[in-house]
Amino acid sequence: MSTFEFKTPVSDEDIRKVHAGDVIYLTGDIVTGRDDVHHRVVVSDKMPPIELAGKAIFHAGPIMKKISAEGEPDKYKVISVGPTTSMRMEKAQAEFLAKTGVKIIIGKGGMGPKTTQGCIDNVAIHTIFPGGCAVVAAEEIVDCEGVEWLDLGMPEAMWKLKAERFGPLIVSIDSYGNNLIENNKIDFNTRKEQALADLKGKLNFMD
Amino acid sequence: MSEVSAREQLSRLVASFMAYSAGHLPEDVKTRLAQMKQIENEGFAPDIYNVMEKNMQLADSLKRPSCQDTGIPQFFARVGSKWPYMDIIEDALIDAVKNATSNAPLRPNAVEVFEEKNTGNNIGTHSPWIDWEIVKDSDRLELYFYMAGGGCSLPGFSKVLMPLEGYEGIAKAVFDQMTTYGVNACPPCLVGIGIAGSSEVAAKLSKKALLRQVGSHNPNPKAAQMEKLIEDGLNFIGLGPGGFGGKLSVMGVNIEQASRHPATLAMGLSTACWAHRRAGIRINPDFTYDFFTHKGAVL
Question: CA B181, B185, B189, B193 torsion: positive or negative?
Fold first, then answer.
């Protein structure tokens, strides 16, 4: 296991250095995008109004607070921003990578075979920020540069964030087809069969 | 006391209670997580437990919601039959949700179905959702507020088994769900299981099971035995924190039951993430209160 410090824009060369199980700390541009953004880009075929090539997409719906005074240009502060369940984006993620040039996906839990193939084809990775740790994450965001697609509502909009050593980001899918969480699931399922076998006869409450 | 001021007093109290519980886990959850951290000493687990602990400290010191997903607002109200302000409870809870959403702040999560628009203030059709129970011979209002995020709501389901599938059939369905969806639900989870005669009763009981303390046991010895067996089995699977693998999987398993129909064995499953923001308060007619899930907390 190795630890890397990356800055956006992240290059293909950077991505090829990392393997599933490595840890990254990321400085630079992170943009939030989850169900509705993926739907709009992939299904409705609208390009995002933000350049995403070389940047990170963060599966997250933050709590944001408007800090600008009345009449001033809108300015927001991040209150709380942790990862959401990445698997919800499985259906659209590979195509999203191809369309946008995003290099790093940040979320929680694993993603499936379509995304794994998408990471190979587009030289990208999926990483996991510890779930439920939204104040730690918010404290690693130094600025919010703006928002797009706010019509989708606060959780679903694209928030443009500037991060400083954002992490730990544990690499769950690398650009070589390795998938940490899917591998874990194989072990979980093997042990599940054993656990079920151990229960045999112990829950027979019917005479 | 006029009705207007009762409504205002109740809504202010409940809004502060919601804001506080967004940033502070109940004692039983914190205690169990601290015990689990001691055991999970290999692989990614220690680092993840360290970040979780740092997050709890920061949420407290910065007065922020510990997780950005503050859930779709849901109250479980146990109303004393002699509580004097029956007419104002619902309006006061709606006011409290609006207030807490803008001031805590909570994330606006209520999306109107079919219109597919976020209402922006957590108020919507049947939102907040209020579950009512009447407690006889009491003049108090007991309220539970539980912030269930989307991640830990995704594994939820209920279905009706045929009785010959037996209690093992329930265990199998729980294991199957926890090794697939459970990984995404911010483990270690608290697992709530409802057993009843129809799917909606089983589903509701599974959620109520999550309102019981971590480490509590069903008073029925067979149910308690089933809780223990499923907990041990899930821990043997070793999801670890965040699904990265470990020695444990869950904070616990709580089962609640209602009589079933002879021809049905319905089960429901609800899961609570490690950041289990369950909060309970008992409010007296003079609006003094006992914040019993968070002893010592000042609102």
Answer: negative
Q: How far apart are CA B60 and CA B296, in angstroms?
A: 14
Measure CB to CB from residue A108 to each of B59, B172, B186 and give the nearest one.
B186
Interval B39-92: pLDDT, tens: 999 999 999 999 999 999 999 999 999 999 999 999 999 999 999 999 999 999
CB contact under 8 A, B150 and A84: yes
B2: β partners: none
Catalytic residues of A: 38
| Domains defined along chain A, listed by start | 3-179 (3.20.130.10)
CB contacts, 8 Å: B66 with chain A: 80, 132, 134-135
**Residue A24 host element (H or E):** strand A23-32
Residue keyed to tokens 């009491």: B138
Q: Does B246 touch chain A (CB under 8 A)?
A: no
Contacts of A118-121 with CB under 8 Å at 24 or more apart are A118/A93, A118/A94, A119/A173, A119/A174, A119/A175, A119/A177, A120/A175, A120/A176, A120/A177, A121/A94, A121/A97
Return the residue in A203, A204, A207 with the most chain B beta carbons within 10 A, the one to mutate for interface testing. Answer: A203
CA distance A157 to chain B (A): 11
Q: Please give the residue of chain B at the shortest CA–CA distance from A188.
A: B237
Report CB contact under 8 Å: A62, B68: yes
Q: A205 vs B222: CB contact, 8 Å cut-off?
A: yes
Q: Structure pTM?
A: 0.95
User: Domains of chain B by range and CATH?
Assistant: 3-22+67-149+277-290 (3.30.1330), 151-272 (no CATH)
What pLDDT digit, counting tens, does each position of B157-206 carry? Answer: 999 999 999 999 999 999 999 999 999 999 999 999 999 999 999 999 99
pLDDT one-digit tens code per residue, A23-52: 999 999 999 999 999 999 999 999 999 999
Sign for the pseudo-dihedral over CA of A150, A152, A154, A155: negative
Select from B155, B185, B159 the least CA-distant residue to B170.
Answer: B159
Give contacts of A155 with chain B, Cβ < 8 Å: 107-109, 118
